[in-house]
Please model this.
Amino acid sequence: MKAALTNFDKAFENRIRLQAMSVLVANESYDFNSLKDLLNVTDGNLASHLKALEKEEYITVNLIKADSPSQFLISCI
Amino acid sequence: MEDKNALAELSSIKSIMERSTRFISLSGLSGVMAGIYALIGAGLAYKLLYKAEVESEAGIYNDFNQNLADKLFFIALAVLVLSVATGIWLTYRKAKRKGQHIWNQSSRLLLANGALPLFTGGCFVLILLFKGDFALIAPGCLIFYGLSLVAASQYTFGDVKWLGICEIGLGLISTLFPGFGLYFWALGFGVLHIVYGTIMHFKYDRESSAN
Model:
């Protein structure tokens, strides 16, 4: 069985991005730290992937608390 | 070969999605412990009530005064505190073993959703205690606890929902038998917890480390 993924958006070609999007589809939104723990990646790694997804307009990233530790909430569009 | 990779990838995605919504570190063993505490508490309560029985010309009746009610309240409170503390400790240990955090989005949602029916039930039962309306206390405890479990089950193992439904059913039945509150309490908080806790323990707690 070969699935022809001809319309597969290149934005998801990375494993971590695909996983992040799966989580955001299953939940309305997810906070950054929980996502980081779930996917087992570092702060910077996750941040760069999320930036890319945000640029492609698949997600929004919102700062929910302006104090430290600041919390980011990621939502699927 | 690619297909095998694809399937493995899919199942890992599925597991991540599942883990993101449900708090899977909940320890089934904590249910067993809560059940044991409840049975011990019920046993103590039974002894207290038995001692309070007074023989008179009208037959045996319970000298159910406020002092007795206070003692029973403290037994119930002790059972609650011990159960929650043990539950948190065992769940923390299980989460650590799995490399998870005990405090994450799903556990937050679990508490947030389970808290309202639980808090409402607590207030309801306290009001009944205050008014001296003892007949509805056991049903009230069971029903609100069951509702809280059903609400929380969305964010942890689905089995918890069935425990909740059983507690609700038991609570409704106990409303029909006002004199037997303690037995229903022992059944709902003791026996049912041990049964479900054991099932969940063998189903979820003892996953092999190869997982």
User: Anything to note?
Assistant: Chain A touches chain B through 17 residues (CB under 8 Å). Strands of chain A lie at 29-31, 59-65, 71-76.
